[in-house]
From TrEMBL:
It comes from the Eukaryota. It comes from Daphnia sinensis. GO terms for molecular function: DNA polymerase binding. Residues 299-382, 575-791 form the FANCI helical domain. This is Uncharacterized protein. PANTHER family: BC025462 PROTEIN, FANCONI ANEMIA GROUP I PROTEIN. It holds the Pfam family FANCI_HD2. Residues 71-293, 391-560, 839-1055, 1068-1296 form the FANCI solenoid domain. Residues 1307-1320 have a biased composition (Acidic residues). One of its GO terms (biological process) is DNA repair. Residues 797-809, 1338-1349 have a biased composition (Basic residues). InterPro entries: FANCI, FANCI_HD1, FANCI_HD2, FANCI_S1, FANCI_S2, FANCI_S3, FANCI_S4. Residues 1322-1333 have a biased composition (Polar residues). Transmembrane segments: none annotated.
């Protein structure tokens, strides 16, 4: 029978006339029984024309004249059941059937709709084919049911909306399988659900995510975002981050994935559960999130709010998935604020990381977790899909934002009352500039990885860098980025010729330093790009003839940088290529087509252009002399040509008898004198070029033929003659003239520089092996010393005589006493820095004098004894080394030497200086003391420079200092540091033993302690070596008594630094506070019955003030860490971590409160020391107020903290302020004498600090009252609101003043009655005069407030009078 129904309905479809079709359809439906129709429904659904047949059935039922109760409902139920149970229905047919049913659902009654909804709900709860298309009918009938006014349910009637709420509740309690999550979410997004219920659904659905397969996540995220449109926008992100982190951890860390260099291509073959599948699922999910935000989803704005609330907690945001989402959203124009927030997060993370080593408490709060943000960025970049990906665009924006940073910001709280305390944790502590440089490095590294991953992006990136170089003045970070790109991706950079050409043509407007770095960065490309090289060549030739002196220096630097990258190939000199170069940079080898002959011709042309620079100003020549040796070290084949050029130029200033013609080096134009030839630098350029080329065999030649054609031999011969002549001469042989004249001073400076250059030449040649050369070296040093003494005497002579008397303002000089004026115009002299011995020469000399040197031959013992007797010469070389390493700490460069060479020379110098300090048992005179202190300072700067700029070579340096030339492989760095620490601890023990004078100890303690701090920062704070150093320092401060504050300060600073870095709760701060109080004295010491003594001998009445300074700085740093930890309350998700953070904060604040309560008990007079205590109290109470505002429930630790603050600190602080006020009363009105005049007393700074402190205490008390109201617990502990103000009313003083005023008033009344008439007459006269004046000059009134006592004229009369 069912087949007959389907056949009849199919025939009706063949009828063309619609009216006839409807009539036949109606007749057919009316003839069928209820059972026949219901039995035919399954066959109709599975037939070929199912949608059309069902349409006919539904139309016939809706228009049927027969009364058939709920037949339409039963048919729909049968259709839904068939669609749900059978998967044989084609998808397109199912869609059409559902659409037809939704159109006819309007004909159903409210109760029928409810039954239909309950049927669908039962199928959903049973999990029947939820991925089928039948499920899309549920939202349609659900929305239709919600519009109904009345639904009958078990003899009760409810509205449709109420009935739908019950359905929603049933859905909320339904267990959903992982396979049905997407379909279920798609249904929910179509329903009208209250926000509170949406939250439950979102949590329920997010709980399914961990059980999903990667390919199921993106469609689920797509549907879930629609569901989260009204609320809970960010909840899915949190669960997705955990999901992808868990999945990727099964296949190793993301870094291992990125190291394979595999890109995520959509069309590649993917294995189920493979890392590629996971990464692709993550990328697709992020794409859905980004598209949703781009189309107006509230997720974007909520994500910005989320980042702003987490700026102070970067470790919770900088996780891979959240970071990728942030980068993707930040690429959208409407959400660019996200990039700025990411930059702040990176800055805060770097700032926290640099403080992490110096604070054990911070490491405890971080659970030892340290994020390598650069490594994370590299991983995300390697997982990028294409250049147009939003994540890649966000990376580019973030990189340029990091490069634009100027100030890295502070640590802890952004704005806090109280002193601004910097990071003085150690002498080697990183500064804010270090964080800025780290941000620049990360930005440059991101751009470098982008070019590696997507080479086609190189032109656009370089163009943007070039544009920023045009616009900003501080361009070092952009130049560094370009240099890195050229060094690591030279082939990609060849496609950026237009941008580099633009940079070349803008060189005229750059400074010398920037131009040198930029040329050094892009010059390797000249070998492969002829067009770029020709452009550079034309620009430099133009700049060489510029009218500006600095521009010509830029041209010289440019030519020299080009020469570094073009080998001057000569067939006969091929073997010289293997010689060791000590350059600071390695040549970037780019494939090139130039032959050796073309390179040789090009280099010859460049040398000719450089020879033109020798006729330029002295600064241009100096630039050539200082940079030419580095070029020769990179290109040794240029040595003969360079020496020939310099030697021919040197001959102009040396007469045939090898006498220096100093007059030719100075020019005098009227009253102006200038240096036209830095002769010392010229001589040193020759010597350094030969030395750094690696061809040191030239110095070993004893007899050189004057007729030799070897230019290097001739250059050495010429300098040897000058050395011999100048060593035999004296200062009087050079006619410099009156030393008070500027020209004479310039001559002396030139001669002194020549002596230094010649002394450097003597060491490079054979001064340590030849007695004659050694004596010449000493003679040159003595002559240089004499020249310097002449300059110092000339400087002293300038200050002699009395200055002319100043005339009073408004008076002219009388005729008898004409004014004294200097008719000579004063113009600044152009003075260049003198030469300094090269690092290699210093290493040779100091290493030769090393105590216990076993490599000295017998014939050299005489030279060694001779040099050791020259304490002045040794001190000079040590001071020169100290100056170079000071520059090394700041500039990361010494004479352009390579890291290997700097390590070699530094090891020799450090070993010799350390042995000298260890073997110096008694300092006899001032020179020996200066030598000892200079050696210690030099050692400190050497170790500091290596820790900052070259930490990879620190182990080798320390091994060399221990005289271990070839350290065994595998020796831990901590063992080497421990050995070096032992040396410096022995030096400090010997200094503090009492055998040395205090002046020496004062100067020597600071570098030793600084070195101990620098080395301790390289140790593990939780290790045994660190604990041993901390205990040793504590015992040292306990047993050594010193009265000099400059000795006590570094010792206490070291003790506090080590304790704070190794102990989570630095108890030493409380101990130091107590020691300071005992040393200074207690306020109520007369009433005190207990007597205590100091436990630390270093702290006494002479050193208490400086210890107080150190202590307040350390306590302020601990407060800053508290401020850093405050945002972590309530947001750290690791079980019961939040109460642990609160308890930890309360414990540290209690420590600060106890230490501060000890300080306010000290008998401190008003002044800088009391100001430190008051500012520290301001910071403490401000932080306490912030902590109190975060309290939701009162923990026992917080109650203890508030109690200790109220009963001990606040009470004692009020007494301390009263003590300061009482002390100031005696000083008020007392005038200080300055010469013959009396000067009013200076304004006390406490007058500003006390009101600020009062305000901070009041804010804290209000916060405590707020906590008490919220928690219904009394936290006042008897304390009252602050009553201390910036003024106090003293009753006794007021009464005395009132009595005095009463007596004076009676006497005044009697005198006024006697002379009343005279007063009235005088008043009338004054009034007439005032009226007359007011008509002419306007009314005069007294200004109140600021500027009191001054009068201003107002009125119209003042504007007309001229």
């Amino acid at each position: 029978m069912a087949v007959d129904v389907v056949r009849k309905l199919s025939k009706l479809l063949l009828v063309n006339n619609n009216q006839q079709q409807k009539e036949i359809l109606q007749q057919t439906i009316d003839k069928l029984s209820r059972e026949d129709i219901l039995k035919a429904v399954p066959d109709v659904v599975h037939s070929n024309g199912a949608p059309n047949l069902i349409r006919l059935v539904l139309e016939g039922l809706s228009n049927s004249s027969h009364h058939r109760d709920n037949l339409m409902l039963n048919v729909m139920k049968s259709i839904i059941t068939e669609l749900c149970d059978s998967e044989a229905v084609p998808e397109n047919c199912a869609v059409d059937i559902v659409h037809l049913m939704s159109l006819n659902s309007h004909d159903l009654s409210s109760n029928n709709l409810a039954e239909l909804v309950q049927l669908c709900l039962s199928f959903i709860q049973k999990g029947k084919n939820l991925r089928g298309k039948w499920l899309s009918l549920f939202p349609m009938i659900f929305s239709e049911l919600e519009k109904q006014n009345r639904v009958t349910l078990d003899s009760d009637s409810v509205t449709g909306a109420e009935y739908c709420d019950g359905v929603i509740s049933s859905l909320c309690n339904t267990e959903i399988a992982v396979d049905d999550a997407v379909a279920f979410t798609a249904v929910l997004r179509e329903l009208k659900i209250p926000a509170t219920i949406v939250h439950k659904f979102v949590l329920k659905l997010c709980a399914i995510i961990p059980d999903m397969e990667p390919q199921e996540v993106p469609p689920f995220v797509y549907q879930l975002l629609f569901l989260c449109y009204q609320s809970d926008h960010l909840v899915p992100l949190e669960h997705l981050a955990k999901y992808f982190e868990m999945k990727l951890s099964r296949y190793g860390r993301s870094a291992n994935l990125s190291s394979r260099g595999e890109s995520m291509e959509i069309d590649c073959d993917i294995e189920t559960g493979s890392p590629k599948e996971i990464l692709q699922a993550k990328a697709t999910s992020i794409f859905h999130i980004s598209r949703a935000a781009a189309t107006g989803h509230p997720l974007g704005k909520e994500f910005v709010k989320f980042l702003r609330s987490r700026v102070d907690v970067p470790e919770l945001v900088l996780v891979p998935f959240i970071l990728e989402v942030a980068l993707s959203l930040g690429a959208l124009p409407q959400l660019r604020d996200i990039i700025g927030l990411l930059r702040k997060l990176v800055q805060r993370l770097l700032r926290s990381s640099e403080r992490l080593r110096h604070s054990a408490w911070m490491r405890e709060l971080m659970l030892g977790k340290q994020i390598d943000v650069q490594k994370m960025f590299d991983t995300i970049m390697q997982q990028g899909t294409s250049e147009g990906d939003n994540i890649v665009k966000g990376f580019e924006l973030l990189a340029f934002d990091l490069l634009e940073i100027r100030n890295a910001g502070g640590f802890g709280r952004p704005n806090t009352a109280g002193p601004s305390v910097g990071n003085t944790s150690s002498s080697s502590g990183p500064t804010s500039g270090t964080v800025t440089e780290q941000c620049w490095h990360i930005g440059a590294h991101i751009l470098l990885q982008m070019i590696r991953k997507f080479p086609d992006s190189a032109p656009l990136i370089v163009k943007k860098l070039a544009e920023r170089l045009q616009d900003v003045s501080n361009d070092s970070q952009y130049i560094t980025t370009i240099c890195l790109m050229v060094q690591h991706n030279p082939l990609s950079m060849l496609e950026c010729k237009a941008s580099f050409t633009m940079l070349l043509y803008s060189m005229e407007y750059r400074g010398l330093v920037s131009a040198k770095r930029l040329y050094a960065g892009i010059s390797p490309l000249f070998r492969s790009s002829g067009a770029l090289r020709d452009s550079a060549f034309l620009v430099l030739r133009k700049l060489l003839h510029s009218c500006l002196e600095e521009v010509r220096q830029v041209a010289v630097v440019g030519f020299l940088e080009i020469l570094k990258n073009f080998r001057f190939y000569v067939p006969t000199m091929g073997s010289s290529l293997s010689q060791t170069s000590i350059s600071s940079q390695a040549t970037v080898d780019v494939h090139h087509s130039q032959s050796s002959n073309s390179n040789r011709a090009f280099c010859s042309e460049l040398l000719k252009l450089l020879q033109c620079a020798l006729s330029q100003q002295a600064s241009v020549r100096l630039t050539l002399y200082q940079n030419l040796p580095e070029v020769v070290s990179r290109n040794p084949e240029l040595l003969p040509e360079c020496i020939k050029m310099l030697r021919c130029h040197l001959k102009f200033f040396i007469d045939p008898e090898a006498v220096v013609q100093v007059d030719m080096c100075i020019t005098k134009d009227g009253h102006n004198s200038h240096v036209i030839e830095p002769l010392g630098h010229l001589i040193q350029a020759i010597q350094q070029s030969i030395l750094r080329s690696g061809k040191t065999s030239y110095f070993a030649k004893e007899d050189i033929d004057p007729k030799s054609e070897d230019q290097v031999d001739l250059g050495i011969l010429l300098i040897r003659k000058v050395v011999a002549k100048m060593a035999e001469s004296s200062v009087d042989d050079y006619a410099v003239g009156d030393v008070q004249e500027p020209s004479a001073q310039l001559k002396i400076q030139t001669l002194s520089s020549v002596c230094i250059a010649l002394a450097d030449f003597c060491l490079a040649e054979n001064a340590t092996t030849n007695v004659i050369a050694a004596k010449r070296l000493v003679s040159l040093f003595e002559m240089q010393t004499r020249f310097d003494s002449l300059l110092s005497e000339a400087g002293k002579g300038k200050g002699k005589g009395k200055a002319p008397k100043r005339t009073k303002k408004g008076k002219e000089n009388s005729i008898d006493e004409p004014s004294i004026t200097d008719d000579t115009p004063k113009t600044p002299m152009k003075i260049f820095e003198k030469c300094t011995p090269s690092l290699q020469s210093i290493s040779v000399f100091i290493g030769f004098l090393k105590d216990g040197n076993q490599s000295i031959a017998r014939n050299e013992e005489e030279i060694l004894a001779f040099f050791k007797s020259q304490i002045g010469l040794r001190l000079w070389f040590a001071q020169s080394a100290f100056s170079k390493y000071q520059a090394f700490c700041n500039n990361k460069d010494i004479e352009g030497l390579s890291q290997e060479s700097v390590t070699k020379f530094s090891g020799t110098i450090a070993c010799a200086l350390l042995l000298h300090c260890q073997n110096t048992r008694q300092v006899a005179d001032d020179r020996s003391s200066a030598m000892y202190c200079t050696a210690l300072n030099c050692l400190h700067d050497i170790i500091l420079g290596f820790c900052k700029h070259n930490p990879a070579k620190l182990g080798r340096l320390l091994s060399t200092m221990d005289q271990v030339q070839r350290p065994a492989a595998g020796i831990p760095l901590e063992n080497q540091i421990a050995n070096t620490l032992k040396h410096f601890k022995d030096l400090l023990n010997r200094l503090l033993s009492g055998r040395e004078n205090e002046d020496l100890v004062t100067k020597a303690v600071l570098p030793i302690v600084g070195t101990l701090i620098v080395l301790s920062d390289q140790l593990d704070p939780a290790g045994a070596e660190y604990a041993e150093l901390s205990n040793w320092t504590h015992n040292l401060c306990k047993n050594v008594e010193c009265r000099e504050s400059s000795i006590a300060k570094p010792l206490i600073n070291l003790l506090a630094h080590l304790n704070m870095a190794s102990e989570s709760s630095p108890s030493i701060l409380e101990e130091l506070a107590k020691e300071v109080r005992l040393a200074i004295g207690t306020l109520d010491e007369e009433n005190s019955t207990t007597t205590e003594s100091n436990k630390l001998a270093t702290i006494n009445e002479d050193t208490a003030a400086v210890v107080l300074t150190v202590l307040t700085v350390r306590l302020e740093q601990l407060i800053q860490v508290v401020e850093w930890a405050l945002p972590r309350i309530g947001i750290l998700e690791r079980g019961d971590a939040s109460p642990l953070v609160e308890q930890s904060i309360n414990t540290r604040l209690k420590l600060i409160a106890v230490a501060l309560s000890q300080l306010v008990l000290a008998d401190v007079n008003p002044g800088p020391n009391s100001e430190l205590i008051l500012k520290l109290a301001i910071s403490f109470y401000t932080t306490m107020g912030r902590v109190a505002k975060k309290q939701k429930s009162v923990l026992p630790s917080f109650r203890t903290l508030v109690r200790a603050t109220a009963l001990h600190l606040t009470k004692n602080l009020n007494n301390f302020i009263a003590h300061l006020d009482d002390t100031k009363i005696h000083e008020k009105g007392v005038k200080r004498k300055k010469g013959d005049k009396e000067v009013a007393p200076r304004m006390d700074k406490c007058a500003r600090s006390i009101p600020q402190l009062t305000y901070a205490i009041e804010q804290y008390n209000q916060a405590i009252l707020g906590v008490s109201k919220r928690t219904k617990e009394d936290l006042t502990f008897g304390s009252k609101l602050g009553t201390t103000r910036d003024f106090r009313i003293k009753a006794d003083k007021v009464n005395e003043a009132l009595e005095g005023n009463a007596h004076s008033t009676e006497s005044e009344l009697e005198s006024e009655s006697e002379s009343g008439e005279d007063v009235m007459e005088a008043n009338s006269s004054v009034n007439r005069t005032a009226q007359t004046d007011s008509r002419v000059r306007g009314t005069a009134r007294r200004s109140r407030g600021r500027g009191r006592g001054k009068f201003t004229s107002v009125g119209k009369a003042n504007t007309t009078q001229k």
